[in-house]
TrEMBL record:
It comes from Citrifermentans bremense. The lineage of its organism: Bacteria, Pseudomonadati, Thermodesulfobacteriota, Desulfuromonadia, Geobacterales. Residues 9-69 form the HTH tetR-type domain. One of its GO terms (molecular function) is transcription cis-regulatory region binding. The keyword Secreted does not apply. Keywords: DNA-binding, Transcription, Transcription regulation. This is Transcriptional regulator, AcrR family. Residues 32-51 bind DNA. Pfam families: TetR_N (PF00440).
Amino acid sequence: MRITEQAKQQCRARILEKASELFCARGFDQTTTRDIALAAGVAAGTMFNYFPSKETMAMTMVSDALAAGEEEFRGRTGGELAEDLFGFIASGLRKLRPLRPFLGPVLERSLSPFPRKNVCPVGEAARQRHLDFMQQILASHGFSSAPDYVATTIYWSLYLGVLAFWTSDFSPNQEASQALVDYSVRTFVHIISGSAGGDGGEHVL
């Protein structure tokens, strides 16, 4: 019997839903692909047709959340460059919040700046899309060309630092993360323009 596209999408969504539930309840490292297949009610072979690994499942959730954050932020530019970068990052963090319990080990493996033997294609695509969107924000503020490799690398390092800190930030309303995002984007703006940028106002995630 031929499986319809709708049925495929429903199966894919169910696998991701059950994987997310298990990752949050047990932890990413403690959850096996067999656990996910059983919870989703599919054969392991069927599941691997959709996702070759649990890392791919987790990074698909991350990628979808970041894409939703980009859409939430899209069209909201208009302030200082540092403010827009803050808003862009904050939108992504808000969408990532449901995944926060298991993000640490996933991001460490999939978005690490260190050379890796095996690169997660979904993670690499999410990284590139994030950087492309960041460059669109820069262009809207008069940066006609993309920042050089050094500046882009510094931005990504700052961003990963924010993610790593945020995943384990238990301060009220993640106020410590808000401060780190604010400082990080102003540092980046200073690097690429020689000025701190922004108006010094407070921002909220």
